[in-house]
Amino acid sequence: MVDVLSQNEIDALLAALSSGEMDAEDLKKEETTRKISVYDFKRAVRFSKDHIRSLTRIHENFARYLTTYFSAQLRTFVQINVVDVEQLPYDEFIRSIPKMTILNIFEAEPLEGRMVLEVNPNVAYAMLDRLLGGPGTAPSKMNALTEIETIIMEKVFARAFDSLQEAWKTVIDIKPKLEGLETNPQFMQIVSPNETIALISFSTKIGDTTGMINLCIPHVVLEPIMPRLSVHHWFVSQKKERIPEEVEILEHRVKKTKLPIIAELGEATITIQEFLGLAQGDVLTLNKPVDEGLKIKVGEKLKFIGSPGSIRDRLAIQIDEIVSEGAEEDYDE
């Protein structure tokens, strides 16, 4: 990162040059000297800051969807937030998680490769306890999942991946599918140890229990769609035009839409007693002359002015005038 000098440092530097304490030629030599920075090949930088920002934005939506989903499933207070998005070697991620944890291994077509959603045991067992009718607290001693508990956890997290699909819709339409559930990180080798991954960490609170959920996405999985994670792509995708087939289908549906057409003869105000006393042959006086055009409304909008008549012994309306847009108020006065 380039250091920015303050105004006092700039003034001191100019004063030193003016007094001869520093030589301008020496400064030029320092600038031309080749600068060497240390690069760790085991921690290769594969994701730019732009990519990290996009991943953060996507998974903030994922966190909101997960919060809604788990709140409904567990029927208790759930809060999930993104706390960090970083890139690191896969081996470092494996060494950082507990020896006994919940690892949901999944794929997301059309992306190639496997990803992992790691759930801290405190969070996982609190979910399990709540699903089985308990208060939602994690046990003091973590035992291996039974066959029934494993099936319950798989079903819960299989449906949770629908939230991931929804969060990624703005970038790519993926179809996440749970492959299996592991509890020992040593038995899970989805990529080589030195492969760079994007690690999205979520702070999770279920009732009074807190813990972390980590989403591990290898770089090789995201590599084909890396250009879509740029800010430029986000702005361009917002201007995407409809293809001709979509426009034709939309026009066809609009043409088939049914709207009520109402011709108003006029209005009259009567009391409830007069209304109850109405009988066949009674006459109501309307509020407009006979020779004045009738208002014809499409839906609730005034669109035409017409005249009453009949065709083949049926009542009909003849359209005499098309009301231009914005002229409704003139006829309502």
UniProtKB/TrEMBL annotation:
Keywords attached to this entry: Bacterial flagellum, Cell membrane, Cell projection, Chemotaxis, Cilium, Flagellar rotation, Flagellum, Membrane
Domain named Flagellar motor switch protein FliN-like C-terminal: residues: 253-323
A Pfam family: FliMN_C
Principal place of residence: other
Gene Ontology molecular functions: cytoskeletal motor activity
Protein's UniProt keywords contain ATP-binding: no
Origin superkingdom: Bacteria
Gene Ontology CC terms: bacterial-type flagellum basal body; plasma membrane
Membrane protein topology class: Peripheral membrane protein
Single Gene Ontology BP annotation: positive chemotaxis
Listed InterPro entries: CheC-like_sf, Flag_FliM, FliN-like_C, SpoA-like_sf
Subcellular localization(s) per the UniProt record: Bacterial flagellum basal body; Cell membrane
Cross-referenced NCBIfam families: fliM_switch
Similarity remark: Belongs to the FliM family.
Official protein name in the record: Flagellar motor switch protein FliM
Species this protein is from: Paenibacillus montaniterrae
Gene that encodes the chain: fliM
